[in-house]
Amino acid sequence: MYDNLKPSYEEIHNACKDIALRIEGLDLGLKCVAGVARGGLLPATILSHLLKLPLLLIDYSSKEGQGDDKNHNNVLPEIKPEDSAVLIVDDICDSGKTLSEIITYFTNQRVSAYTAVLYFKQHDKQPVHPTFVWKNIPHDSGWVIFPYERNEYLTPDLDGPRRHLQSLVRS
Is the bond preceding residue 38 a cis peptide, omega within 30 degrees? Predict the structure, then answer.
């Protein structure tokens, strides 16, 4: 068993720069970057700035894949016919089901769908292989715990203001 990975915000930004550099040299005809909520929003935002492309939100999660949030509305955006290529971004491709379903949706609309992920968990039954991957990791690796998911960042210190006020009264 592997240890959990805990990338920092700086690592995420560097990963996005690496992916953007690989994309910039290609003629993909990208018209927009689409971030898969929730984890894909930060890397998609960074990539949209680096590539100077508009950002779309995709609020979608496969009901069959990995992950803890299966309560999305699953409404996919329509892409205008002149917007013929989209870069779909997520933080991790675990089971591959979410990305596979989103790719199918866009290709059925005759939109070229490219994908970028920070981490790709490789296994034999993967229904999709992302176009751009920052790091490949084994399928049985530990969790990838992103900084926006960590409890120490998400749990507010509710006692902090009270302690501060008490220290002022004691002075």
Answer: yes
